[in-house]
Amino acid sequence: MARRRLFRPEDAHALRTAADPDISPDGRRVAYVVVETDLEADKLASAVWVAPLDGSAPPRRFSDGPADRSPRWSPDGRWLAYLSSDGSPATDVHLRLAPLDGGVPQPAGSLPGPALQYAWSPDGAHLAVVCRTGVPDPEAQTATERNAPRSVRGLGARLDGVGWQEGRRHIFLVDVGTGDTGQVTRGDYDHVDPAFSPDGATLAFSSDRHPRRDDRQFRGDVWTMPTGGGRLRRLSGGEGRASHPAFSPDGSLVAFAGHDSDDWDADPALFVVPSDAGAPPERVAPDTDRGTLLVPGAPSPLRWVGNRELAFLVADEGRFVLHMARLGQRRSREAVGGEVQIDAFAVEPRRRRAAFSSAWLDRPSELYTAPLPTAGRKEAAAPSQLSHLNDDFLAEVQLTKASRTSITRPDGTRVEYFTLLPPDRPPRNLPLHLDIHGGPHGMWPSARFLAFHQAIAAAGYAVVLPNPRGSTGYGQQFTEACTGDWGGADCEDILACCDDLIRKGTADPDRMSLGGGSYGGFMTSWIVGHTNRFKAATAMAAVIDQTSMALTTEIPYFSLWNMGGTPWESPGEYQKRSPLTYLPDVETPVLVIHWEGDIRVPIGQGEELYQGLRLLGKKTELLRYPGGFHIVRAPSQNVDWVRRTLSWNERHDSGARRDGRSRAPRKPSGSARPLRGRSETRR
Q: Which of 146, 227, 408, 658 lies 20 to 30 angstroms, CA to CA, from 166?
């Protein structure tokens, strides 16, 4: 077998991703989405594929693309529906119905705007479709109308990845046979996540009907109403977020994912409530101290397996695994696990089988299937791989394996970190690149950053990925441990992970670089303002000034929660927790990276960092990428910032040894300044 070459930044373009599976009603097939890079258009393209669930034949492409997603089989087995567009931002998204007995896919109904979500009725005769209404058509406007000012509707008028939240999202009922379309929900509210009751008579959905709903993001309740329209009934408790409602097979219960508080650092959980609202919601498996996977815009993280059993995704110490829980039991059990990050799944209850898409730090995304455990079998069965999207790539390119390590901090807190080492060098005295995740309530690893981390490791670095306190996946107490203490114990956890690799002789203390995005960009900027240990830093989409961040981000209440009030109530805290305050002490060269379309952390944050460092005579450069959002970016840009990060590190690594020979282990560098600006955690 020919020797495989090392990973390169541009290899990100070759990776393909499986996503959002759905199992056919007869349990024989699974539809899913394949995402790949369209190099000519410089964007991601997606199409629907279908595979036999037993793996008896290769998967086949079902739709043409270039932007098809959310495949769902009709319960009667006659149709496969999916959302489709030509990929242009100005193009409406249509719901298409593909007849399984042959024929060309047709648009479903006559909707007044782009389709965002949908659900089949139990008999397959109707579709509940979420559609954005009241959005002006630029092509129908006069020049004067296009140049008129925008009247901004509250603090929640923008959403990163979407832009301006114009109009309202309403649910429409589409008759599959006739195409007749009628609006079900009304009023000055948004309605999402529709779900039918088993008899088709009731619709459940999520909606925020709070008086200050236009000032809020990621909040709302679960409601029900008669399918044909009528009185609404609220099922959830009125706090936090309640989303993805799903009726039990007998219709007596509704499960949903969300919170029972308005705390921004609360781990999501799973709840059930009587469908007649006869009792308050109850938490499912309350002693499972791990958060349910709840990502805006992602598929539902939960499925009923029977009238008393649920399957759902859980964040657990760097993994996204499938758990199962019986109602009334205190703990859930792992159904599909291992070193995996499952991002979406479907179940076939009768055969107790799941299909899921999954990846890991050293394993690209693929589609898998696995039997669900029964009461008499405690151990989960090994999954079977259905897709082979990346086989050819892996035959040519070597990925370095990931490892995990735990350390214990002086206060007894256990902190984990992941490491990727160069596959072609001895693991001794390597240059170290520290990458800090966003959030702060995120966690490493992230399959979305597989290409970045593999490219850095292949370039010769020991890549360290810490999960400091504040990271999700380690229990509620750990998640909330950095609230009110950004730059305190969380920072010390991060540096302790680097020191652990230095003590082991893996990393060279004089050849360390760091970087991160969002909260990771905050921490990068914070660290270089408090220590000189690192030779180069890359701050991407970094939070720099807590005051201007709170007054420009589309989620201002997140800032208020973490800073303990408004900038006028806690001015000292805002100044103390801002890396901007410590820029005069920065000696590390800083590469500032930001996207002009970022709404979550607006580009003014990056401009403050860059301009402040320049005014102080520090070494810095600014990269402004056009367009993009906080997370969504063009494929070419994702490759470019990897290359520029490597170039920045190498430019400032004056002690680089090109001969690959190792040197004796050394203790941590003595050039570190003591950390400042910490406060005791308030909570």
A: 227
Alpha carbon distance 131, 168 (integer Å): 8
Same structural domain for residues 313 and 167? no
Distance between first and last Cα of the chain? 57
**H/E element holding 547?**
helix 546-550
Q: Which of 283, 267, 273, 301 lies closest to 193 in space, CA to CA?
A: 301
- Condensed to tens digits (0 to 9), the pLDDT of residues 439-497 reads 999 999 999 999 999 999 999 999 999 999 999 999 999 999 999 999 999 999 999 99
The answer to whether the CB of 560 falls within 8 A of the CB of 566 is yes
CB 357 within 8 A of CB 344: yes
Judgement on whether residues 79 and 189 belong to the same structural domain of the protein: no
E strand spans, 76-166: 79-85, 94-99, 106-107, 115-120, 126-133, 158-159, 163-164
The answer to whether residues 468 and 379 belong to one domain is: no
267 residue type, one letter? D
Q: Please state, in angstroms and rounded to a whole number, the distance separating the CA atoms of residues 609 and 550.
A: 16
Hey, is 325 helix, strand or coil?
strand
DSSP code for 235: -
* Same domain assignment for residues 501 and 360: no
| Residue 5 within any structural domain of the chain | no
Does residue 313 lie in a domain region?
Answer: yes
Within 10 Å of residue 61's Cβ, how many Cβ atoms? 11
Residue 310 belongs to domain spanning: 297-385
Q: Looking at the structure, do residues 445 and 591 belong to the same domain, yes or no?
A: yes
Model-level pTM greater than 0.90?
yes
Question: Could you tell me if 321 and 428 lie in one domain?
Answer: no
How many CB atoms within 10 Å of residue 391?
Answer: 11
Neighbouring C-beta atoms of residue 52, cutoff 10 Å:
16
Task: Name which of 527, 520, 391, 407 is nearest 453 in CA terms.
Answer: 520
Convert the pLDDT of each residue in 322-345 to its tens digit: 999 999 999 999 999 999 999 999
What SS3 string covers 359-427?
EECCEEEEEEEEECCCCCCCCCCCCEECCCCCHHHHHHEECCCEEEEEEECCCCCEEEEEEECCCCCCC
Number of domains the chain is built from: 4
Q: Which two tokens stand for residue 421?
A: 């080492």
Of 390, 493, 503, give the one whose Cα is nearest residue 443: 493
* CA dist., res. 431 & res. 421, Å (int): 10
The DSSP element (H or E) to which 453 belongs, if any, is helix 450-458
* Contact of 79 with 97, CB cutoff 8 Å: yes
d(CA 471, CA 436): 11
Same domain membership, residue 404 and residue 378: no
Contact residues for 149 (Cβ-Cβ < 8 A; gap 6+): none
The pLDDT value recorded for residue 659 is: 37
CATH of the domain at 192: 2.130.10.10
Q: Is residue 278 located within the same domain as residue 381?
A: no
CA 255 – CA 589 distance, rounded (Å): 51
Residue 165 in any domain: the answer is yes
Q: What is the pLDDT of residues 516-528, one digit of tens each?
A: 999 999 999 999 9
